[in-house]
């Protein structure tokens, strides 16, 4: 059977054929200083701003879960077009994450102009920063092109929100080709970083239980209420996702969930849902199992729906297309 002149088996294999163009040494000849330059800049940035790792990891997910890792999240909006970056769920993405990508891109453009894509920089920076804060080694490949489209309207429904039901969250991950097991491993990214008070305010300020939110340690809930008392006046108020080791990539996030220290409603849900509870228990007990699962899931996400060949471009600036006329 053929469609548009191509055998059916070729069409079904097309996403994997595109992925086959990626390789770990993609820039070894065209930009031999790629790795060294990237690692040095992200290291310097992480030392200067310790929240960079968590911010960049979040930026990676918000890019890759929407039509693949293509740097569409980095494109700035114009008077005629609102980009993904300004979708409601993306407005709180941290500036440090965008800045580190810009720094790497600027340095690489001086060394090897028009060679390294912004999407590869984001993937490489995320990989390096995870390891830098104690996480597993993620084996990533390179050769992506940057998207030719960034549309705010393509974001909704592709990123999970803290107040969603577990059914809804699972369906979002499954629509991206990710299993429940991979979802639980990837949510372990909450072991670093923070969440703004507005993302969990409805949980801690609503009288959902006699002593506070159901499933949350009462003393923890009380401290969060103190911390976020004025969150409606100061939208930047936030709390660490992992209250005990917020700057270290480890399995403490899962241990916290078992003892009522889950910050978000989705954290509580994943700890007690019958489809996910056993995995939370496993990763809480076995950090190696978590690291292995997280690394494999990250590799899968990083290679899904990548743009290669004429499906994209290598942007000269990460925040605008090459044909942008101003």
TrEMBL record:
Claim: Signal is one of the keywords in the record:
yes
- Any Pfam family from its record, for instance, is peroxidase
Cofactor(s) needed by this chain: heme b; Ca(2+)
Q: What are its E.C. numbers?
A: 1.11.1.7
Q: According to the lineage, what is the superkingdom? A: Eukaryota
A Gene Ontology MF term for this entry?
peroxidase activity
Task: Specify the protein name.
Answer: Peroxidase
Explain how, and how many, cofactor molecules are bound.
Binds 1 heme b (iron(II)-protoporphyrin IX) group per subunit.
Q: Its catalytic activity?
A: 2 a phenolic donor + H2O2 = 2 a phenolic radical donor + 2 H2O
Where in the cell? Secreted; Vacuole
Keywords, comma-separated and alphabetical: Calcium, Disulfide bond, Heme, Hydrogen peroxide, Iron, Metal-binding, Oxidoreductase, Peroxidase, Secreted, Signal
Residues making up the signal peptide according to the UniProt record: 1-20
Q: Check the record and name the PROSITE patterns matching this protein.
A: PEROXIDASE_1 (PS00435), PEROXIDASE_2 (PS00436), PEROXIDASE_4 (PS50873)
- Annotated Plant heme peroxidase family profile domain ranges read 21-322
